[in-house]
Structure formats: C-alpha cells, structure tokens
Amino acid sequence: MNYKRSSLLFVEAEKVIPGGVNSPVRAFKAVGGTPIFVKEAKGAYLYDEDDNRLIDYINSWGPMILGHAYDPVVNAVVDKAKKGTSFGMPTEIETKIAELAVSMVPNIDKIRFVNSGTEACMSAVRLARGFTGKDKIIKFAGCYHGHSDSFLIQAGSGAITFGTPNSPGVTEGTAKDTLLARYNDIENVTQLIEANKGEIACIIIEPVAGNMGCIPPKGDFLKTLRTLCDTHSILLIFDEVMTGFRLAKGGAQELFGIDADIVCFGKVIGGGLPVGAFAARNEIMNYLAPLGPVYQAGTLSGNPLAMAAGLAMLNELNNDVEIFNRLAEKTEYLHKGIAKVLNDNNIVYTVNRVGSMISVHFDDSEVIDFETSAKGNNDTFKKFFHGMLNEGVYIAPSAFETWFITDALTYKDLDFTIAAVNTVAKTL
Ligand code: PMP
C-alpha cells in the first residue's frame, strides 16, 4: 500500500501540533512508521488520504459499535445542527438520553453528562471523595481512566506506550493519594486497605481492562472487591468508558451481575461525538452541585449535537435485542480463526476476549495483569501490526490496546482478516 499523502500531511501536522497528533497513541510511536490520515469512513471501513481501504478494528477506540457514519446517528446530528449547536441552557433531549441510560443500566438513578471519559472519571473520583470525606483512591496498574492527574500513576494505554505511566507534571501531593494495586490480585487490594484503614474513598477499576490489551476479571475478583468495599465503606467505581453499552445493555455491571456505586461512561454513549457521563444512585448523585457541595460543570456539557448522537446510538442498541450476542459471536469467530492460523504457523501467542473486546499478545503465558501483558514480544507485535496494515487491516498501533469489534463487520470481513493474519504469521 502507498501512504504518500499521509506522510506529507504528517510532516505538515508536526510543524504545528506536538508530535503531529492531538492524542499520543495516534502517532504510531509504539510500532514505528507514519500515522495514516483518514479521509472518511463508512461501516467497517476506513478510507485514507491515499485512497486505501482498511478494515477498521479500532473504531475510534470504541464508539463506532455499529460502524462508521451510521445513518440514524448521522441524521440525528445533522437535524440538530440546523437548529443551533450550543445554548448553555437546558434542552429536552438531555432528559431523554438520561432517561434511556438510566433505564438500560442497572443500579443508577441519575446521570450527569460531560465531554470525555477523562472528565467522567475525574468527576466520579471527586464525587466519591466529597461523599465519603476521605482522600485516597485505589487504582490498578495498567488501567487507564483518562489523563487527569490522579490517574497518571502506572497508567495504561498511551501512557505505557510512551514510557510515562507516571507523568511529569503530576505533583507528589496528588500522587501520594493514589494507591496502586495489581489487577486480579485481591490479596494486594486487601493489604492496601489494611495499611490505609479509614482513608480510602474509592476503588476505581476497568471491570474488563482494555488499556493493557484486553484483560478479563478472574473468577470472583470483582465480587470480592464489592464485598471489600462494603465492609470498609469504600465506594466502588466501575470505569465503563470502554465496556458501557458494549458488553451488554447495562455494561459490565449487567454482564457480571455486580453493582458498582458510581459508573463512568464515554465512547459508545456519545455515538462518536465528545461525550462522557457518570452515574450513581440518588444518594450519591444528589451530592453534586447544584443540589450538593461537590462542584462539577461544563460549558458544552449536554451539547445538543452530542446528545442527539448519543440518543440515536442508545436507541439503536436498546431496540436491537440480539446486538450484544451478535457482536460476541463475531468476536468469537475472529478469535477462533486467529488462534487456528497462529497455531498452524507455530506462533507463540495468547488471545484475550470478552464480548466484543479482543487482543492478541505475543507470549504464551496467561495475560492477567500489567506485568504479564508487558511480557508480550513487542518486536513481533510491530511486525504483526505493519503486516496487517499492508494487507488492508487496521488494528490498534500498540500491544497495550484492545481491538473493538463493530457490528458493521461481515463474516466475509472476518474471513479476510483471518486470511491476513495467516499471511502475516508466515513473516513473523
Ligand atoms: N477510561 C477508560 C477505560 C478509557 O479507555 C478511556 C479512553 N480510552 C478513558 C477513561 C478516557 O476517555 P477519554 O479519552 O474520552 O478522555
């Protein structure tokens, strides 16, 4: 494939945008080479500035669960835009999407909309601190909850890729209140709670980790976390920015049958526009301004275009009873196909999958936490990534990211992808 125009556009971008990108993982630093500039996308396909067609397994890092430029979402946004793009005043559509979200997700009474997953997680933690009157939080190494200061402690996603899981600029004062636990290690969490008795406001977790590759919670891990939180008056925050409206209508809470105290959303809930949200039962949400003392606000929060996209998206997901099964079946098919061809080619690998989240690791030990994820062979991953790209398949440009399966993918696309893996495996 030829990426001439993308390369030229990147040179221009680098002159005026740090690293040429507005979010680090887009820069291809983990895999080398020049990022691809997208011209447009439809369904399961991206079309780049050199007119290459790529099957997309990133899907804007999650939101495009029904495929790109999905008609009901696009039409809703276009219709709204003609009536004004922002008012900073209440609109009826905000209540409509809130009602729908509350009806789809277990255990939430109220939801507040913000503009990104980062904002949602940052606000959820502030609310948890305000509500409990405690300062410390527990997060898990390799989990990513956005780029607000408290979370850039052994953070996943681009923070690992760029070697700055602990970013300069985060003060020691902030960092000391973030306690770090190992994913899937309940002993470790128990020790942290014991050593910080009465000081922990919340535990924040990706109920299925997606920012160190895809890592499922093992056995009773989430259930035991719930019990520990109840015993020690700690709020359990599920960061469902990736898993929300993706793994089930009610996200990971529904899939695993576990209630969190606060739930964070992003990605799918905005249908591809900049949206995040956090939600909880009345007792907690009523602690937020203007009802309560915890402050949180946003000029563009509840923006009509964003709400129109989100509402159209949630309506589609709510009305399609088979969608989440269909996505899981497609992902399982892909998993089996990839496993077969990697086995046939004697490649050492582990594939992790939950619902429509999947990742390929080039190591044969079980991938259960940040340490085991980091053991994957990055040189093999780089070759794999570029090989797949050359075959017309766009996967995440880092081994620490999850692939997101969209319903727009046909079985023909999946077969094409498996054949591409077979071709590339011979070169690894
Ligand atoms: N939480 C999780 C689990 C995420 O995956 C992400 C983004 N990938 C975020 C929070 C931050 O969301 P945003 O990039 O919209 O700020």
List keywords for this structure.
428 residues; seven-stranded mixed β-sheet; four-stranded mixed β-sheet; 15 helices; 14 strands; binds 4'-deoxy-4'-aminopyridoxal-5'-phosphate; pyridoxal phosphate; porphyrin biosynthesis; EC 5.4.3.8; Glutamate-1-semialdehyde 2,1-aminomutase; cytoplasm
Describe the structure.
Keywords: Cytoplasm, Isomerase, Porphyrin biosynthesis, Pyridoxal phosphate. The modification N6-(pyridoxal phosphate)lysine is found at residue 267. Its cofactor is pyridoxal 5'-phosphate. One of its GO terms (molecular function) is glutamate-1-semialdehyde 2,1-aminomutase activity. InterPro entries: 4pyrrol_synth_GluAld_NH2Trfase, Aminotrans_3, Aminotrans_3_PPA_site, PyrdxlP-dep_Trfase, PyrdxlP-dep_Trfase_major, PyrdxlP-dep_Trfase_small. With 428 residues, the protein is of the alpha/beta class. It has 15 helices and 14 strands. It has helices at residues 4-16, 71-81, 92-104, 117-132, 158-161, 172-175, 186-195, 221-231, 251-256, 282-285, 304-319, 323-344, 370-374, 378-390, 411-425; strands at 38-42, 45-48, 53-56, 110-114, 136-140, 178-181, 200-205, 235-239, 262-265, 276-280, 350-354, 357-361, 393-394, 403-404. The strands form three sheets. It has a seven-stranded mixed β-sheet with strand order 4-10-9-8-7-5-6, with helices on both faces. The chain has a four-stranded mixed β-sheet with strand order 1-2-3-13. α12 (323-344) runs parallel beside α15.
